Amino acid sequence: MDAPQEGHVDAESCNEVDDDKSNSDCQSMPAYMNSVLRRQFLQEMVKSLPESVQKRIIVLKNMQLDQLQIEAKFFEEVYNLEKKYQLSYQPLLDKRREIITGKLEPAEEKPKWKEPEALPIEGDASDAFRESLKSIKAMPQDVAGIPDFWLTVFRNTGMLSEMVQTHDEPAIRHLTDITIKYDDEHSYTLAFHFDKNEFFSNTVLTKQYFLKSTVDLEDPFAFEGPEIYKCKGCVINWEKKMNLTVKTIRKKQKHKERGAVRTIVKQVPTDSFFNFFNPPEVSEDKEDIDDESQQILATDFEIGHFLRARIIPKAVLYFTGDIVDDEDDEDEEEFENEDDEYDDDENEGQTKSSKKQSPNDCPNQ
């Protein structure tokens, strides 16, 4: 084959690089440092720029701050739209409650969507499915409403299932609806409606979340939209000896001198879904909040947003499995794919790995 003409580069050789250059130190690349080092590096980089360039960057950051102020107004309008359209959704959500509780028997309808083809169930999963579905199949045909609707939604949603303890289930079976009300003070209230039950006298348990959508002047560039900054629960009027948030323990004590033994009975807090309605008190100064409370509140805020944005509007899809928590499945597929890629590299003798890189990996290794 004739050699390529001078000045002409064969298309297949355009990706060739000098090995010495490709093995440069990862530490010089900000994208492959940890976040703290990356921030420090970039800040020092900016300080090292010519003064004229630094002045232009100041102007750009001032413009960014002006843009964030406009974005805050955008999110304020979004909140008002959510508040407006919630009123339009409500008749449908009210009808949903009536059907679930058996107060309304809807006229039969044909699906308005195309049902996806069911995948075959094989092996051990098939046996486990049959065992788990025995009680469902034994349900009488004339049963009213949709039994255990909300309990099923909770149990089939990872975030909520972690909250629900076994001893909570009898109480949650009495849950008939979860509603949302947008308040005038830039907050929203989740209301959990219950049938009369033996656990508490409340018919409604509430949790209010307060939002802020303003740019914090102390840390303006951290603004990413509305955030929950505090929440308020409610008092549960427990029936005698039915409080699910405490457990009774008995401990024997022996008198040091007389040797007499006595049994001390006391109640101590225990895990329960109903702790959700008793969040930690929030101090105005974030530095006064201990780490445990901060973690509880962070999870609490996440759950409040999840209930508002996903569960309340789409509960039936979580009940039917049209929406499932698939993060674990994605992780497994990712690891399986990476294993396959390693196998391919070994078998074919390739020198370049296609393994997905972590931020701390050198891209040229």
In short:
Residues 1-28, 325-365 are annotated as: Disordered. The protein has 365 residues and is of the alpha+beta class.
Describe this structure in words.
The structure is a single chain. The protein has 365 residues and is α+β, with helices and mostly antiparallel strands. 41% of the residues lie in helices and 14% in strands. The chain is built from 10 helices and 6 strands. Strands 1-2-3-4 form a 4-stranded antiparallel beta sheet. It has a two-stranded antiparallel ribbon with strand order 5-6. A hairpin with a 6-residue loop joins strand 5 (246-254) and strand 6 (261-269). Helix 6 (149-155) packs across helix 9 (291-320). It is extended and about 80 Å long. Mean pLDDT is 81; it is low at 330-335 and 338-365. Belongs to the nucleosome assembly protein (NAP) family. Residues 350-365 have a biased composition (Polar residues). Residues 1-28, 325-365 are annotated as: Disordered. Residues 325-348 have a biased composition (Acidic residues). It comes from Drosophila arizonae (Fruit fly).
What distance separates the N and C termini?
Answer: 34 Å
Q: How many β strands by DSSP?
A: 6
Q: Give me the secondary-structure category.
A: alpha+beta
Order of helices and strands: HHHHHHHHEEEEEEHH
Q: How helix-rich are the residues, as a percent range?
A: 40-55%
If you average the pLDDT, what whole number results?
A: 81
Radius of gyration using CA atoms only: 29 Å
Number of helices: 10
Write down the overall geometry.
extended
Low-confidence stretches: 330-335, 338-365
- Percent of residues in beta strands: 5-15%
Biased composition (Acidic residues): 325-348
Family: Belongs to the nucleosome assembly protein (NAP) family.
Pfam family, one: NAP
Biased composition (Polar residues): 350-365
